[in-house]
């Protein structure tokens, strides 16, 4: 599903975030990305999500070389990629329901289907009773779960999550990991960046460790 060939990323200003990265994430594979703060985890996810572009090398997703996708093609590419990042990017003037429904509305889905699928996604993250609220009135962990519901509602074939359980207590973290595992069993590839090595080891999925921008193991 995802292939990196000798990928390097240098940010303007000279900071080298990734160097010589070769990586393969199989179709329907779920894996964790670990490494110290600044190791390059977020950068690696951003290259797959087309939030950043590599300075060197190739990123191939679903057989497509991302270098061939121009700016105009990015929204369409992202329709099937579920992005879960730290800044949840929620729309604070819309309800929780509207935030989660947005990807389906953009896709032009029928209203009845939007309602059914949005409610199902909210139910999965335990927020159905909050659907009429505004995100500003929710806790950090609840806002994080709204972001997760929005990322999975469109049934992406790839989920990229950056510290998705950073603000959640252990019980909720485990629940979110079970959600990812279920989506993975249903055929979605999942790549999760986390500092929580204990959680990764308890789950038994593949772990890709980054160290100063290079794949360490
Ligand atoms: N937009 C940017 N401009 C310049 N440098 C950046 C930018 N984003 C990240 N970097 C630098 O690139 C390196 C890798 O950062 P990245 O955020 O990918 O690491 P990370 O492993 O996700 O860290 P953390 O666990 O703290 O989130 C760091 O040295 C960081 O300072």
From TrEMBL:
SUPFAM superfamilies per the UniProt record, alphabetical: P-loop containing nucleoside triphosphate hydrolases
Annotated ABC transporter domain residues: 2-217
The entry's keywords: ATP-binding, Cell cycle, Cell division, Cell membrane, Membrane, Nucleotide-binding
Localization in the cell: Cell inner membrane; Cell membrane
InterPro entries reported in the protein's UniProt record: AAA+_ATPase, ABC_transporter-like_ATP-bd, ABC_transporter-like_CS, ABC_transpr_LolD-like, Cell_div_FtsE, P-loop_NTPase
Gene3D superfamilies the record matches: P-loop containing nucleotide triphosphate hydrolases
GO molecular function annotations of the record: ATP binding
GO biological process: cell division
PROSITE patterns: ABC_TRANSPORTER_1 (PS00211), ABC_TRANSPORTER_2 (PS50893)
Membrane topology field: Peripheral membrane protein
Domain of life: Bacteria
Function statement: Part of the ABC transporter FtsEX involved in cellular division. Important for assembly or stability of the septal ring.
Entry's family note: Belongs to the ABC transporter superfamily.
Quaternary structure annotation from Swiss-Prot or TrEMBL: Homodimer. Forms a membrane-associated complex with FtsX.
PANTHER family from the UniProt entry: CELL DIVISION ATP-BINDING PROTEIN FTSE (PTHR24220:SF470), IMPORT ATP-BINDING PROTEIN (PTHR24220)
The protein's name in its UniProt record: Cell division ATP-binding protein FtsE
Organism expressing this protein natively: Spectribacter hydrogenoxidans
């Amino acid at each position: 599903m995802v292939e990196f060939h000798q990928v390097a990323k240098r940010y303007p200003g000279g900071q080298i975030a990734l160097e010589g990265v070769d990586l393969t994430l199989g179709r329907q594979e779920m894996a964790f990305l670990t490494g110290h703060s600044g190791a390059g985890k977020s950068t690696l996810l951003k290259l797959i999500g087309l939030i950043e572009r590599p300075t060197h090398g190739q990123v191939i997703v679903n057989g497509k070389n991302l270098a061939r996708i121009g700016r105009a093609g990015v929204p369409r590419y992202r329709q099937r990629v579920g992005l879960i990042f730290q800044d949840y990017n929620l729309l604070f003037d819309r309800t929780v329901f509207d935030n989660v429904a947005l990807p389906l509305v953009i896709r032009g889905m029928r209203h009845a289907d939007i309602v059914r699928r949005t409610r199902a996604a909210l139910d999965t993250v335990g927020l159905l009773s909050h659907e009429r609220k505004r995100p500003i009135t929710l806790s950090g962990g609840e806002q994080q779960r709204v972001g997760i519901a929005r990322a999975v509602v469109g049934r992406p074939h790839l989920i990229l999550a950056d510290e998705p359980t950073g603000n959640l207590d252990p019980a909720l973290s485990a629940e979110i990991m079970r959600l990812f595992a279920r989506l993975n069993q249903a055929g979605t590839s999942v790549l999760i960046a986390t500092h929580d090595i204990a959680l990764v080891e308890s789950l038994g999925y593949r772990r890709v460790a980054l160290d100063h921008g290079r794949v360490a193991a």
